[in-house]
Every structure is written in structure tokens, then in C-alpha cells.
């Protein structure tokens, strides 16, 4: 079974290769090849999962050494895989949700002439992400990490004929580079400290390294995680990444990409456990992002951007939990999995709504869609209930555990982190209720489709009749079936994981677990969460459900306007980083011109001037040469005589 | 007669030769002035040989004469060639070596 691990990655990689190299002649079957290979990878993963369950708890880790990649002297970099419970969880999530998104894309991208290329990129994305979670050393993990970055760039910029999509892709790539730099330096420091890239020796010797070094490694790993997982301060790419096709958003937000940061922190748990400062930094980043994303999500009128804010916030929850150490690792991953279900479901639902509404994304122009799109309404509604943590659904089990764990950190930190997490749950209920109500309830506020000459169609291939109201209709089966499956997952996953603490027992051998000493009981946390949840949802209902929603957004308070601009993240980056960088480079250019060029040009000019004078001596007349010879001889003779006299 | 006087004569001849090289333009005259300087040297060599009482200076004088003879052959050939091509024997016309 061990060598099947390579095939897990191989299947989607083969798909990417065939689809991208195969060219136009595969246009008619390309999407099915993509789906088939993603499903094959999932089937393999499921088989390995069953195989793994059959083994005793302590011996569930499978390893597979493929080949030595760079054997140079004492330096060894291997292509070797390690499939333990943590990797297995990710494999099932990535391939399972990934396959559903593939199937959904068949319908969603049906009119796009580049559908084959799209599926090639999707397969590449899966392969890179699988490589990331299956690698048994940091170097190979980094390969997958960069592969994910590449695939996300290709997919976000899939409609590169739109300048905004091309810019968003570049932005995602560049912001990710900052994080990647952190990860690469962290890997270098780890190598100089431990002399190896492999996880096992690094983690077993983690405590032997100096505190300062571990803290540096921890913070650098956190920087890497911030880039991929869109955490403050590297969060700005996520909102713009909505320029990609909706299935891509679902894939990035649910199964791949943003989960990579949480995986990295959880995988490197041994390093973080030994560096409490870095761990606290992870918590703080998580808590700040949690609030940041939630506030942004409250103000956005674009349905996908509201969901993007929600993703940022939910990943913040996971980071917060991962920063808590052994108290939180399991819950971070559990929330990651349940979030994978409901966020994928929500995005696919949003895509279905957009499909029905001529690619309108402004929620102020939706309204009353529940009658026209019953399946989308029910699946989206279940995802909505799951994400806000409605009792019994997935989010309830995983998010409450994180809030509880945050309190269990103990001390003032515990109260602050717990309080933020609790408040975040309330805001989550508010903005998700807002999305739900604005989209599916109330009076229709549909607007005629814009003239394609003035506003280029958002997604190509879809027929838009200018001046006509949209005719909402339910999406085709290839789109609704994945939504139904994901909705079922959103409802059941959390409960199944929590029966008999199944998920905890499953993951504990890898991540470790400790209960912590919570100053508040489980029931108190649950009750408090339900209260803030009810308050948040009621507020949103009062604001958007009872009163009519204006089609054009009101001016709003200062905070609302700031949140609409993503809490000024781009303005901040522009003023501090772009302007600062410009000034720095300008002063460097000035220094180069004045100092370096001045010295070089000055030397050249003085040599030139001197030789221009000297050449006048060479007048070609024999007698002047004779004079200089005579003079020289006279000087030599005089000097000789003088020396002799002395 | 005091041999030192030959040295004065030698210095006088050398100065006349040097001044001729520097002042005159005719290549032949410049050439003859060079010969004059060489012979002034020869005179000085011979005088010193006499003063010191050994033959080194006289042998040097013979060498100089041989070299001067060879130089005359080459030098006159150059001057004749130059005259043929330029129709002039002025050394100022041979100022082609400058940039």
C-alpha cells in the first residue's frame, strides 16, 4: 500500500499534464478526464484511509521513499512521502471536495471555450496541494507550496482578458511571495540548526535548539502561513482573488491554498510548542484576522467578497486554535474540515446564484430567490446554518470547541482570545444572515442586465440580453449534485466527528492533545455562543429582513465605508509599502547617480582631460623630441652629480 | 699642453652639435650635427684614456666610429628616400608621427 501514496499525487498531475499538453483535440472530453483523475485520487485516498483504519493506532503512518532528489555529500534532499492521520485528513478533504468542485465546474464552465485548460489547472492545483501535505520533509513541502502558488495564479487570472483578473492574479502571487520568503528562510534556518529537512528528526530534536532560534523559525513559518492563509498582514490578496471563476474561489477557500498555512503551523507543532513567543504571535494573528475578516464581511455587497471576508475570519479561527498549542491543534483541523464542507457549499451556491442572475454579484440586486432556486436555497441555507454554528450542525461542533479552547489557554490571554472568538461568532452570524437574507428573502430587486459594450460581461460565454431582467432558474444537475453532497457534509460532519470524540482520537497520535484548564465550563461557552449568535442573526434580520434593502448602498458610517474598502488594507499597503518603496528606490537611484556614477565619470573625465593636454606635447617635430631628450639627459646628469656631491 | 683643454674642446663641439640638431631644419645638416656630437664624445673618450693611462676609452672610440659609420649608411638612405617622396629635406615636413 505504501507506494500508492505517490499515485495519489500522480493521478491529478497526470491529468494536468495530459490536459495542458494535449491541446485542442481534447476539448470535448478534457473536463471528464479532469474529473475522473480527481475522483481516482479520492478513491485511492479512501482506500488508503480504510487500510489505515485497519492498523493499530500507533502504526498508522505510511511512508514511501520515491528517490533521492539532491544527494550531494552530506546534503540529502529526498522525494519521500509520509501519510499519517493529519495528512490523511487533508488528502480526503482535498480530493473529496476537490472532486465535487471539478464536477460542479463541468456545468459552470460549460460555455467557456477554455474549459479544458481550466480543468488542467484545477488538477495541477490538487496535485500541488497533495504534494504539500504528503511531503515528509520541508524542502518537498516547499515545492508543493510553490506549486499551489503557481496554480492559484493561473486560476485567479484564468480570465486574463479582464485587466482586473490579471491584476488580481499578480497581486495574489506577489503577496504570496512575501510569505514564501519567510518559509524559505525558515527552512534554511532549520537546516543549519538540525542539518536535515526531514520532519521526524527535526521534531524529535526541536527542544535541543536554542529558544531564540526556535522563535525566529516559528515567526518565519508564521509569515509563510500568513501569506498562503491570507492572514493579517498579508491578507489583501484574498478579496481580489474573487476575480477568478467561482469554482476556483471554492477550491481556494475550502480545500486548498488557504488551508496550507494552518497545515504548516499544525505540522510544525513541535517547533511551535517549544517557542511560546511564536505561538502567542500565531494566536494574535489569528484573533486579529478573525475580527478583520468578520468586519470586512459585514460591509461587502458583492456576495463573493462577503464570503471571502468570512473565509478570512474562519481561517483566523483555525490559526487562533493552532496557536493555542496541543489544546487547539485538533480543533483547528476539525474546523478546517467542517469549514471545507460548508464554505465550498456556500461558494458553489453563490456561483449557482450568479449563474442564474446574469453574473450579477451585487447582493443588493438579488432578493426573493428562494422561490426560483429551491435546491440552491436549501443547500446554501444549510451551509449558512453550519457556518454560524447552529446547534447540531458542523460549525457548532468545531467552532464552539475553538472558543472553549481559547478560554482554556488560561490567564488574561485566555480571556482576551476567548472573548474575541466569542464576539467573532456573533459577527459571523450577523454577516452570514445578511448574505442569506439579501439573496434569498425579501422582494426581488433585480436590475436589467448592463449593456455589454459598456460593461464587459463578467464571465464569457453566457448570453446577456441588455435591458432585460434576469430570469432566475435552477442550475443543471452537474452543479446541484455537488452542492447537495456538500450540504449533507455541512450538516453531518461536525456531529460525526464529535461522536465519542472520534476526530480527537484519530488525530491525537500526530498532534498531541491536552485539555487545558478552562475557567468556564463547556455549557457556559455553548450558551454564551448561542446568545451572541442569536443577537447577531436578529440584528441582521432587523436591518435587512424587516426593512427593504435599498438597491444602491447608503453612505454608511465611517467604519462601514472603511470596511467596504477592506479596512483600508490596500491604502495602507500603498502608502507604507508602495510609496515607501518608491522613495527608497528613488533615493538609491539618486545615490547611484551622484556618488557611484560621479566617482566613475569623474575619474574618466580627469583621465580624458589630462591626456588631451598631454597629447599636445606630441607635435611631431623632431627637434622638440630632441629637446626633451636633451632636457632629460641634463636632468639625469644633474641628479647624478648632485647625488655624488652629497 | 694640458689634456683638460681637449675636454673643453669636446664640450664646445658637443654644444655646437646639439644646438645644430635643435635649431637647423635641413635634415642633412641635422645629421652632420649628430655626427659632430658623436665625435665630440670620441674626443672626450680619447682624452680620458690619456688622462687615466689605459686604453678603454680608445677602444670605446673605435666602437663609436663603427656604429656611426653604420648609422650614416642607414640615416642617409632614409633621408634620400624621404627627399624623393616629399621633395624636401626639411625635418619639419616629417611631422607625421603626431596624432
TrEMBL record, chain B:
It comes from Streptomyces silvisoli. It is a multi-pass membrane protein. It catalyses: a quinone + NADH + 5 H(+)(in) = a quinol + NAD(+) + 4 H(+)(out). The gene is nuoK. The lineage of its organism: Bacteria, Bacillati, Actinomycetota, Actinomycetes, Kitasatosporales. Its EC number is 7.1.1.-. Keywords: Cell membrane, Membrane, NAD, Oxidoreductase, Quinone, Translocase, Transmembrane, Transmembrane helix, Transport. It is found in: Cell membrane; Membrane. This is NADH-quinone oxidoreductase subunit K. It comes from the Bacteria. NDH-1 shuttles electrons from NADH, via FMN and iron-sulfur (Fe-S) centers, to quinones in the respiratory chain. The immediate electron acceptor for the enzyme in this species is believed to be a menaquinone. Couples the redox reaction to proton translocation (for every two electrons transferred, four hydrogen ions are translocated across the cytoplasmic membrane), and thus conserves the redox energy in a proton gradient. Gene3D superfamilies: 1.10.287.3510. It is an enzyme of class 7 (translocase). The chain crosses the membrane at residues 6-23, 28-48, 60-83.
